[in-house]
Amino acid sequence: MVITFSAILIGLLALVRPLQKNSFYILHAATVILAAYYVETHYFRASAFGSKTMLLFLVFHAVSINITTFVAYFADKRAAVRHAWRVPENTLHMLEFLGGWLGALLAQKIFHHKTAKKSFRNMFWLMIFLEFLAIMIILKYLKLI
What are the structural domain ranges in the chain? Predict the structure, then answer.
């Protein structure tokens, strides 16, 4: 399971250049791999690319990417208040596209952050649309719909 999760997350990191500079994605990948290690050593082992492993990956990914996105928004809001280095908008949008849009939406509501800038909001909704479009294309390719 750890090998499978590592292969997926590090492979994505190697293939998508913007992710290589995204420290929040690296935090997300490390969190998912550590969670897989914990589950594999304490509970059960699963086959490398079996359905149970892939389902666990999706659950771990969904939880981790949303928490990571929430933390990224918190870090950006805190930096904005302190007039310090900000989290780049493309980093936030990449996290949203990877599935962290729910964490982003929650962070926007709680911290009142990134809610006034119209161009950011438009890109935020575009990322959500593109993510759902990508999911639909993948499901059609896999003949699941």
Answer: 2-141
pLDDT at residue 49, rounded to an integer: 72
pLDDT at 65 over 80: yes
Percentage, residues of the chain above pLDDT 90 = 50
Closest listed residue to residue 27, CA positions, set 108, 81, 100: 100
Q: Nearest to residue 128, comparing CAs of 92, 97, 88?
A: 97
What is the 3 state secondary structure string of 104-121?
HHHHHHHHCCCCCCHHHH
